[in-house]
Amino acid sequence: MSGALRPRARVALGVALVVALALVPAIFSTYFTSAVAAQALVYGLAAVSLTFLAAYGGIVSLAQTGLYGIAGFVLARFTVSNGMDPLLAAVLAVVITVVVGLAFGAVVSGSEGIYLLMITLALGVITFYYFSQTPTFGGHEGINGVTAPGFIGDPVTHPAVMYEVLLGVSVIVYVAIRLVGRTNFGLAMQGVRDGPTRMRALGYNVRLHRTLAFTLGAVIAALAGVLGTWNDTRISPGTIQVSQIIVLMTIAVIGGLYRIEGAWIGALVYTLLDTYSRGLTARFETWIGIILLVILILSPDGLTGLAQRLAALWRRSRNGDAARPVADASLPPGPGGPGLEPGPGRTGSTESPTVLEPGGAAQ
Amino acid sequence: MVIRRGPAALGWLLLAFGVAWVVVHAFGHGFGSEGNVPQFITVGLNGVSLAALYFITASGFTLIFGLMRVVNMAHGSLYLLGGYVALDLVSHGTNWWVAMVLAALITGAIGLVVHQALLRWNQGQDLRQALITIAVATILADQMIVHFGSTPSTLTAPSGLSASLELGVYQLQYPLFRLFIIGAAVVIGLVLWLVIRFTRFGILLRAGVDDRDMASVLGVNVPLVFGGAFFIGAALAGLGGVMGGTTLSLAPGQDDQFLLSSLVVVIVGGLGSLRGAAVGALLLGLIEQFSSVYLPQSLTNDAILLTFILLVVVLAVRSQGLFGRTTT
Questions:
Q1: pLDDT (tens digit, 9 = 90+) per residue, B26-57?
Q2: What is residue A331's predicted lDDT score, i.e. its pLDDT?
Q3: Which residues make Cβ contacts (< 8 Å) with residue A184, sequence separation at least 6?
Q4: What's residue A320's pLDDT?
Q5: CA of A242 to nearest chain B CA: how many angstroms apart?
Q6: Contact at 8 Å (CB) between A262 and A252?
Q7: Which of B1, B305, B319 sits opposite A130 (nearest CB)?
Q8: What tens digit of pLDDT does each residue of A186-206 get?
Q9: Whole-structure pTM value
Q10: What gap in Å lies between CA B297 and CA B311, rounded to an integer?
Q11: Cβ atoms A259, A302 nearer than 8 A
Q12: Helix, strand or coil for residue A157?
């Protein structure tokens, strides 16, 4: 959808969008701000740690929920049991999560694709079992009564500040991802994604790049864990159980696994469904499964992919001639094509992986 | 990729330390019946029978992957479903053995349906297929709560196997059914090995694993072989569920537990390798059981971390698993 816009127009559009989003607490009810808007931002932030790794590193990780949990549990433990200042606890939580993320990254960095998916799932599930068995972190009950820093206040009764903080962090993370994608490291990461063997031949340390990419993903997951735990005022193993791992995957797939923005779009769609459809059906999980299945069958690159395809179709019919190369590169193949496999052109319009220099964003 | 010596040495060192630790605690008080030897025997048998259960379930998982490169994330759900189907049948008066066979056939059939409807047309897109099976797992897990509730339940062992066997040492008794699981795992492992090694179906299977396109060009009905393999793999999950439901219990969450164990077993052993599945299952089963008894009291709750260490060490030594193939 944004493929046709100039960079400056896109920035203006982005700023307008953020300003509009910042007005949500002023326009909508407290309930909507807390249950839908803030929740969607938490999910979006957690999911973007997944889509970032998928889009830039070709790493589809199911361990992100586990990393979210590590940050949340460490934060809760330090704030509630040790009476630590929430901000200091948050910093420690992020640091510890990133260290664990570095270890996870080192473990999975020798693997690719489906193998990596399995290993990260195993890591995510092990994290869940760890927290559900350890009394230090409250066992099955988890830890309740986690207070946010003073300036945020009580996110349950007055969610506006919490929401704005979440929005701010989301914007920072989004911009940071875009910037990292243009650094040498970011470009090398995309090189590792597209051709690990070639990058190895060029002298790049593929495992190191994967490990560091994974660590960056852990930073985002840790931020999501800290903010999400503040927003919920509690964390329990239920927050990171297998069904939640699947929820995060579903969100990423709904939005488009290889699109950074897709994470927030998927999160919003999921949160709206979660909030408003539970009254209609007692079998919410079944419906989520069915929705995931339908998306995977019909449009494996999610809603953003679908939108992109429709936009390309519309452009093509308007121009009346063959699509421009740019549109072609971002045009996902039909349902039979390898819609979920990373590769040249799979990240869509912002970076073209074949051109490994900062000017690569050709739009 | 080769075996890396540093991590391998560390792995052996950790293994040696673990074995030494258990040996010291088991035999440190002598071999008399007041020592810890009887406990050691019981825990060891528990470990082996748990490993047998893991092997039966994971062998189906590794078989499906070995042939089709499909990581079936619904494998744990099929395990639980097999147990529930048998439970339902037995509670309606069906004989346990008949129920076991029927449950395996039904889960096999469901696996076949999933394969034919959802996985046949997108072969080669392994990530998409894995995500599709995740969706299937979500639907199955929720529907099982609808149909079978969420209170834990257990199958009653068949009359011939419900007793305990005198082991003849230290006046120990051990549930016959658990020994039966060990025997079943050995038989299943042998049969699978013989089938894969010597029968025509096995030859076609291996041909398909090595070069799917070439096998297909040479006139092998690849879809048929694949469907057959998926049926067997899913049926093995169901079979595991019936046995697990008889010794352990059936409840929501067991599906995740056995998905995790299958994942760990094949990650450790190497995807697609039967031998690897056996070794992986033994390592996991023994580590889980021994750690629950021999870890110092203060660390008992952290036993799951040993599974993590197992994964880390194996992946550091060989990122494709102990018996995994280097090429994919």
A1: 787 777 766 778 888 888 899 999 999 999 99
A2: 37
A3: none
A4: 63
A5: 7
A6: yes
A7: B305
A8: 898 899 888 888 988 888 888
A9: 0.86
A10: 23
A11: yes
A12: coil
Residue B127 backbone dihedrals phi, psi, to 5 degrees: -65, -45
The predicted structure's pLDDT at residue A170: 95
In the DSSP assignment, the letter for residue A359 is: G
Band of pLDDT at residue B19, cut at 50, 70 and 90: confident
CB-based contact A122:B267 (threshold 8 Å): yes
Q: For residue A118, give the nearest of B125, B135, B267 by CB distance.
A: B267
**Quick one: which of B66, B40, B8, B53 has its CA closest to B226?**
B66
Query: Which residues of chain A make contact with B128, given a CB cutoff of 8 A?
Result: 296, 300, 338-341
**Chain A residues in contact with B305 (beta carbon < 8 A):** 126, 130
Cβ burial A279-305 (10 Å sphere, 16+ → b, else e): eeeeeebbbbbebbbebbbebbbbbbb
Q: How far apart are CA A189 and CA B52, in angstroms?
A: 42
> Strands B173-175, B164-166: parallel, antiparallel or unpaired by DSSP?
antiparallel
A238 to chain B: closest CA residue: B253
With beta carbons less than 8 A apart as the criterion, state whether A66 and A175 touch.
no
How many C-beta atoms surround the C-beta of residue B31 within 10 A? 10
B73 touches chain A (CB under 8 A): yes
Residues of chain A with C-beta less than 8 angstroms from the C-beta of B136: 289, 293
State chain B's mean pLDDT as an integer.
Answer: 86
B199 touching A (Cβ < 8 Å): no
Q: Which DSSP state fits B37? A: H
Output the pLDDT for position B2.
Answer: 57
A346 to chain B, minimum CA–CA distance in Å? 14
Which of B83, B86, B282, B247 lies closest to B174 in space, CA to CA?
B247
Q: Is A118–B256 a contact, with Cβ atoms under 8 angstroms apart?
A: no
SS3 A175: helix
Q: Which of B69, B134, B316 sits opposite A249 (nearest CB)?
A: B134
Question: Cβ of B295 under 8 Å from any chain A Cβ?
Answer: no
**Alpha carbon distance B217, B121 (integer Å):** 18
| pLDDT recorded at residue A3 | 52
Q: Are B272 and B325 in contact (CB under 8 A)?
A: yes
CA distance A148 to chain B (A): 29
Sign of CA dihedral B66, B69, B73, B78: negative
Q: Give residue A203's region: left, alpha or beta (phi > 0; psi -120 to 50).
A: left
Name the residue in chain B with its Cα closest to that of A285: B142
d(CA B56, CA A91): 45
- Among A123, A242, A249, whose Cβ lies nearest the Cβ of B131? A249
How far is B95 from B313, CA to CA, in rounded Å? 44
State the Rg of chain A over Cα.
20
pLDDT of residue B153: 87
Segments of chain A with pLDDT less than 70: 1-5, 320-363
